[in-house]
Specification:
The protein is of the alpha/beta class and about 325 residues long. The protein has a single domain, classed as Aldolase class I (TIM Barrel, Alpha-Beta Barrel), CATH 3.20.20. It has eleven helices and twelve strands. Strands 1, 2, 3, 4, 5, 8, 9, 10, 11 and 12 form a ten-stranded mixed sheet that branches. A two-stranded antiparallel sheet has the order 6-7. A hairpin with a 2-residue loop joins strand 6 and strand 7. The longest helix is centred in the middle third of the chain and has 18 residues.
């Protein structure tokens, strides 16, 4: 059968019909809001390149967590920016570190809110790299102990999920062993399994003060031209004990996300990163597109490609417009 018997437009004639036959839906339950926490009190500094995003002190972060809860967003992911940094990233696993205090405070205030922690050294090292640097090179194996120690300190502070983003080989296994050995065998690992060396991270690095002091991260983050390698990375992380996998960035790598959805029967996350978010806002401010519709369309595309969870700075603005 063909036209005129078959007319797909029949099911597009009204919003009600479109809603009834919609294949993919965006829900508040799909969203995770990234938050930046800094030292001080009463601090709520806007990030210039990301409208609506702030660097906040722990007390302000607790207030933000309440707003997140009221919007029905189930989870946040925390990034810490310490006042002091050193070559080892000592603040990453300090019991009284900025993220550790933030986790404890948010969990006291909002115990039902899922608190995920980003596990990496880049925000805590004076050189800005994600691992230990020796003789000008980021060393893989010496970095594993530090990364595992950071994850364990987050667990002790009360984190619900730890999410390693460093892209060192073997870090999921090192974290799993550290957590299990300390009695945290119940704690899930959400691995940044396919994290690309992307140009879309610029605004984040401004917010987190984490730009490398020398070189770049192409020696450990993935090459943008590689998709099959991403599936290999994901498979290895699952073998090491990852409970869920992430693709980062999201929109330029929807093919990787869709391939992962076909390959793996585990929860998948995708990070709608700072550059993706900032581009939509910048275009909307100039009147070049409808910002609200473009943002929701971007997130819907990520969901349609296979993501169960979407980490996005737009979580609050989108959640406020979604039906309960």
């Amino acid at each position: 059968m063909s036209f005129p018997s078959v007319r797909p437009r029949r099911l597009r004639r009204s919003e009600t019909l479109r809603r009834m036959v919609r294949e993919t839906r965006l829900s508040r339950d799909d969203l995770v809001l990234p938050l930046f926490v800094v030292e001080g009190r009463g601090v709520r500094e806007p990030v210039a390149s990301m409208p609506g995003v702030f660097r906040q002190s722990v007390d302000a972060l607790v207030d933000e967590a309440k707003r997140v809860r009221d919007l029905g967003i189930p989870a946040v992911i925390l990034f810490g920016i310490p006042t002091r940094k050193d070559a080892r990233g000592s603040g990453a696993d300090a019991p009284d570190g900025i993220v550790q205090r933030a986790v404890a405070a948010v969990k006291r205030s909002e115990p039902e809110l899922c608190v995920i922690t980003d596990v990496c050294l880049c925000e805590y090292t004076d050189h800005g790299h994600c691992g230990i640097v020796e003789a000008g090179e980021v060393r893989n194996d010496p970095s594993l102990e530090r990364i595992a120690a950071a994850a364990l300190s987050h667990a002790r502070a009360g984190a619900d999920v730890v999410a390693p983003s460093d892209m060192m080989d073997g870090r999921v296994g090192a974290i799993r062993r550290a957590l299990d050995g300390a009695g945290f065998e119940h704690l899930p690992i959400l691995s940044y399994a396919a994290k690309y060396a992307s140009a879309y991270y610029g605004p984040f690095r401004e917010a987190a003060e984490s730009a490398p002091a020398f070189g770049d991260r192409r020696g450990y983050q993935m090459d943008p031209g590689n998709a099959r390698e991403a599936l290999r990375e994901m498979r290895l992380d699952l073998e090491e004990g990852a409970d869920a996998l992430m693709v980062k960035p999201a929109l330029p790598y929807l093919d990787v996300l869709a391939a992962a959805r076909r390959e793996f029967d585990v929860p998948l996350a995708a990070y709608h990163v700072s550059g993706e978010y900032a581009m939509i806002h910048a275009a909307a401010e100039r009147g070049w597109l409808d910002g609200e519709r473009a943002m929701e369309e971007a997130l819907l595309a990520i969901r349609r490609a296979g993501a169960d969870l979407i980490l996005t700075y737009a979580a609050k603005e989108v959640a406020a417009r979604l039906s309960p």
